[in-house]
Specification:
The chain is mainly α and 837 residues long. The protein contains 43 helices and four strands.
């Protein structure tokens, strides 16, 4: 503030005094605030005042102090509210120092409590002291218990003696050795339960003390039976129900006061437009004073009421350890009452107990459905991130809220509510500053939300990926935590998130850092993230019309192949890590490899085909490893330069041996058929498949497979074999004829079975008449001599009858006639020729 400073000469020099006047400003620097050690409740603010002129030069600097009286302050006062009022009124204290004011007020409360204890409580406990804590009472003694009970029988209207008596019993309960004697005192327990039942509406302080006594008992499970005998839980629930109703009425009264104030304000504006009327303005001022007084009174009642609710729900939470007692509470609308207080409760301790109770109840299906119907998720999300007035996070409440949300996140509909209430950005903001305990629950909750495919994209619009990447790269342990890894894996499934991971913080840098950490830690969970990034680059190529020209990350993976193969050959690599590395290599195309190198050079440098051949030996590797090896061989064959290497390596024979070992595994069969399909496209590998293995017979066995994908790939492979196995005149060769016959049998299976049944009926009739059926003999002859002998097909020995699965149990003569219709041109078969199918 600029103020004129008058020098001594200016005051005595007449007109020249104006030249001596100069503008200055004061700069206040806060140092500390401390409570006064004696007298009325007072704070002393120490600060530094510096006077600076208009040129910025310091004129003077001095240390000063200021006393701030807090006459209504007591041990039961709301420290946070009083601190805010002190900061608002004292310009020497900046708003950022409200924490120092709270600390000084707490110290002042301790001083007041010491003074009350020293004078033996001589001030009395009238209406003025009802707001004070029980700690201001003198020391209690078990020998004086009868005197304390006499105080509870007092009939004073202000309930001061009853409050004093119950408060002294509370002090007795602080000594654990007294609890057993107190709970076994039938007169005391009967008196306390009677007061709680009949007079709970008359004194909140008394009710607060009584419930605190019962709460002390409830901390020991062996005392629960005695509390149940005195119906403590039922009485407490009755009190809490009354306080809940009163809280709802208090909210309605606040709305009514706000509505009335708005109505009077409208009337004032209308009167001002008409010319003004002082009566309406005075009425508004009177109402505002009345509202302020009622609001202050309601705030005091609310503060004490929330203390009652806090200890009451804490007591019920302890008693609810018994499931039968918990069910009784639920029948009396316990859950509904808890949820109501989530909206208007302001005390952090009360919210903590309420959240803990709801979390405990949420593990049961019927309670979860009620929580879902009453929109608890919206109320809980609004409480995050649980910051106090000074900006600090209340860690216990935050942790409990996150655990409640985690319990609820197992329900898909509730997960949808969380996403709708914008929980994901709030959780992401909590990852960095949260404590280790809260961070673990946050990661679990984010993982549950990320399981939905439509939700994964929402993470791209937050800081989730940068924060998760920093946590991955800077994780202190050898292996990253399972919660963090699970979230990272889920996020990396989405293309946009995978791209952000790959290019964090610059292009390709994120992938470089991940592979570097992988080499050091051999962490299979980290490898899963890298594999998902490779899936993203593969999918990106598949979506491009001309990937050779449009793929922007060409050759990016080339510098990592040597590192990945090194991890593959590392003896310390676990089975899970090997699976993930093989899967990653199987996602890399020729475009991902170094330019002009492809897979051929990598296979030669690292002798990958020998490694693959070892794993293809039956019994050498687990199912997951074998499947990834087959996929990797298929990826090798996308590079034409690898065909000669594969043909000379014995891999083709290993693949066929794997087929015979895993012929009951549809997944392995499908991938093997895909590899055979690629092998048939290269001249170097084609001969190996057709004539050095029985792969064609295996393909024929899959024509009627139960899985449509296996059937489709098998037919594609057989189509290639059929076109390759033709004579000079274009007629099908030996393999081609077998393929045509097998396809005919599968296509006309129902018709052939009907003919078989007809032949069987005729044969039985002839046998009954004593005649031989030549068609039956022909059928038996055809079955005994082998399949397709008279149609130009190869005859199999009895040792090879496993491959004679294409033989039909029907009339061989009729089958030969029908097959003769399609031997010439397979196109007739495709168009529907060949008998009745």
């Amino acid at each position: 503030n600029a103020v004129p400073v008058h020098g001594s000469k200016a005051e005595s020099c007449g007109p020249r005094a104006r030249k001596a006047v100069r503008m200055t400003r004061k700069k206040l620097t806060f140092h500390s605030v401390e409570p006064l050690e004696h007298g009325e409740p007072t704070l002393v603010v120490y600060y530094e005042e510096e006077v600076i002129d208009e040129d910025g030069d310091r004129i003077s600097k001095s240390r000063k102090s200021k006393k701030i009286c807090v006459p209504s302050f007591s041990p039961a006062a709301d420290v946070e509210a009083v601190a805010d009022q002190v900061v608002d009124k004292c310009k020497q204290i900046p708003s950022s120092k409200v924490g120092a004011v709270e600390a000084a007020l707490i110290e002042l409360q301790r001083r007041l409590l010491r003074e009350r204890a020293m004078d033996g409580g001589g001030r009395g406990y009238g209406a003025a002291s009802d707001r004070e804590l029980s700690a201001a009472l003198p020391e209690a003694n078990m020998n004086d218990l009868d005197d304390y009970m006499e105080m509870m029988y007092d009939t004073d209207e202000d309930y001061s003696n009853k409050i004093r008596g119950t408060g002294l019993v509370v002090k007795l309960c602080k000594n654990v050795g007294n609890l057993e004697l107190l709970i076994q005192n039938h007169s005391l327990m009967a008196l306390l339960t009677r007061l709680l039942d009949t007079e709970h509406k008359k004194s909140l302080e008394m009710v607060y003390n009584i419930i605190r006594i019962f709460l002390s008992f409830s901390t020991f499970e062996v005392m629960h039976d005695l509390l149940t005998q005195y119906k403590v839980g039922s009485l407490t629930l009755k009190v809490l129900t009354y306080e809940t109703d009163r809280a709802e009425q208090r909210i309605k009264d606040e709305f009514a006061l706000d509505a009335e104030e708005k109505r009077l304000e409208v009337e004032v504006r209308q009167e001002e437009m008409r010319g003004g009327s002082q009566e309406v303005l005075d009425a508004l001022d009177v109402f505002r004073r009345k509202k302020k007084k009622q609001t202050r009174k309601a705030a005091t009642v609310k503060r004490i009421s929330e203390k009652v609710l806090h200890v009451g729900y804490y007591l019920l939470l302890n008693l609810a350890e018994d499931q039968a007692t918990e069910k009784k509470m639920l029948r009396r609308q316990l859950l509904e009452g808890l949820i109501k207080h989530l909206d208007h409760a302001s005390g952090s301790q009360l919210l903590l107990v309420i959240t803990a109770f709801i979390k405990k109840l949420s593990i049961f299906e019927e309670n979860k459905n009620k929580i879902k119907a009453m929109a608890v998720v919206r109320k809980v999300v609004q409480l995050l991130p649980c910051k106090k007035k000074n900006g600090d996070v209340f860690e216990p409440l935050l942790w409990m809220l996150l655990r409640l949300l985690f319990n609820l996140s197992f329900d898909a509909e509730l997960r949808g509510q969380m996403v709708k209430e914008s929980l994901i950005p709030r959780l992401v903001d909590l990852l960095a500053p949260a404590s280790s305990r809260a961070r673990v629950v946050t990661l679990k909750l984010l993982y549950h939300l990320s399981t939905e495919d439509k939700v994964k994209s929402l993470f791209a619009y937050t800081d989730a990926v940068p924060i998760v990447m920093q946590m991955l790269l800077n994780f202190p342990g050898q292996h990253i935590g399972i919660e963090l890894a699970a979230l990272a894996v889920n996020l990396s499934w989405h293309p946009r998130n995978a791209e952000a991971m790959c290019h964090f913080p610059s292009k390709g840098r994120g992938l470089y850092e991940l592979v570097g950490r992988l080499e050091k830690t051999l962490d299979p969970l980290l490898m899963k993230v890298i594999r998902n990034i490779s899936s993203w680059t593969l999918e990106q190529q598949l979506q491009l019309a001309e990937p050779e020209k449009e793929y922007p990350l060409r050759g990016m993976w080339g510098r990592f192949v040597d590192q990945l193969v090194g991890v593959l050959n590392n003896r310390d690599s676990s089975q899970d890590l090997v699976v993930e590395v093989l899967g990653t290599l199987g996602n890399l195309t020729v475009l991902d490899m170094p330019r002009a190198a492809g897979w051929a050079r990598t296979i030669k440098e690292h002798d990958l085909l020998s490694y693959v051949s070892r794993l293809l030996v039956p019994g050498m590797a687990q199912h997951d490893v074998v499947l990834e090896v087959v996929l990797l061989v298929g990826q090798f064959l996308t590079d034409p330069r690898t065909a000669a290497l594969v043909a000379s390596s014995g891999v083709v024979g290993g693949l066929h041996e794997l087929w015979k070992d895993r012929n009951d595994d549809s997944e392995i069969q499908l991938q093997l058929l895909d590899v055979f399909y690629r092998l048939l496209h290269y001249e170097e590998t084609r001969e190996e498949v057709l004539y050095n293995t029985r792969a064609v017979m295996d393909m024929l066995s899959c024509v009627d497979h139960r899985h449509p994908n296996v059937r489709a790939v098998a037919l594609d492979c057989l189509e290639i074999v059929l076109e390759l196995n033709r004579g000079e005149d274009g007629s099908p060769g030996e393999l081609g004829q077998q393929i045509l016959k097998r396809r005919f049998q599968v296509h006309n299976q129902e018709w052939l079975e009907a003919m078989d049944r007809e032949d069987g009926l005729r044969g039985s009739q002839h046998s009954a008449l004593g005649h031989d059926d030549p068609r039956m003999n022909s059928h038996l002859s055809g079955w005994g001599n082998g399949a397709y002998d008279e149609y130009g097909g190869s005859k199999y020995d009895e040792e090879e009858e496993d491959y004679a699965y294409f033989t039909r149990h029907g009339s061989t003569e009729r089958l030969a006639m029908d097959m003769g219709m399609i031997d010439g041109d397979p196109s007739e078969y495709k168009s529907g020729g060949g008998g009745g199918g």
